[in-house]
């Protein structure tokens, strides 16, 4: 008996790194709780390689236990003390009722990649990892998937059901983006304004984008939003952008125009802070770089560190 190989699919979106599936994003849940890797990259606005607990006793009651030497008498629990006849103290934990909206950039320029995956796929992977961490800690997660058409929106909610909706919406929006004809990128500014309407003051917005054609008023708008929201940006970077081999490269524009351009070797060192992140830092927005070729295993410790400051 001989085995017959399945026929290869003619659909280019079935190729690994191009197609985005909800099941694949759901499967990243197992990576979301791994520890910080010693090789974690130093990133702008998030110094250090160790995630630490926030200082302070928190505001939510956690447990009642017998008083011991060194405990603060201000936290003595009167009811437990009166009931048992022995001093008891009430401990507290940090209340983390977080509302976080993930903004995934699936505009035409993000449907590009030279190693492992498209930039849009890498953006979705990183956001999914962060989303799993947030709902695991009891936070609420929402989504805006920006493309050439109307954005896909999932309002913030909690639990695994919320992540099912978010991952499914990302997969659907990405498939729609791949199916659309080539077009120019719409500005990100309209999508940012939509994010403002989904979040309360003090909420968190995490944007995954390559910052191609963000719009002429992008920095002004994001500076104004940073006064009301906590904003973090994941700068999605393809290896070709950072260190491209010299040579002649053909190109095609959405209007049908084709040509060839000569590219010189990229001069930036791989660990240099991107100047776009430096400009955003001046706007009150911290960011980090996501390297497309690295993959989810590399993104997991970065998302752990990002989760610690949200």
Give a quick set of tags describing it:
elongated, 310 residues, disordered N terminus, 9 helices, alpha/beta
How would you sum up this structure in a few lines?
The chain has 310 residues and is of the alpha/beta class.
What would you say this structure looks like, in words?
This protein has 310 residues and is of the alpha/beta class. The chain is built from 9 helices and 10 strands. It has a 6-stranded mixed β-sheet, sandwiched between helices. Helix 3 (119-136) links the parallel strand 3 and strand 4. The longest helix has 21 residues, at 159-179. The radius of gyration is 23 Å and the shape is elongated. The termini are far apart.
What is the secondary structure topology, with strand pairs?
Blueprint (H helix, E strand, L loop, with lengths): L21 H5 L33 E7 L11 H7 L3 E6 L5 E7 L13 H18 L3 E7 L5 E7 H21 L9 H10 L5 E6 L8 H9 L3 E8 L1 H4 L4 E6 L5 E6 L11 H8 L3 E6 L4 H14 L1
Parallel strand pairs: 3-4, 3-6, 6-7, 7-10
Antiparallel strand pairs: 1-2, 4-5, 8-9
Helix pairs in contact: 3-4, 3-9, 5-6
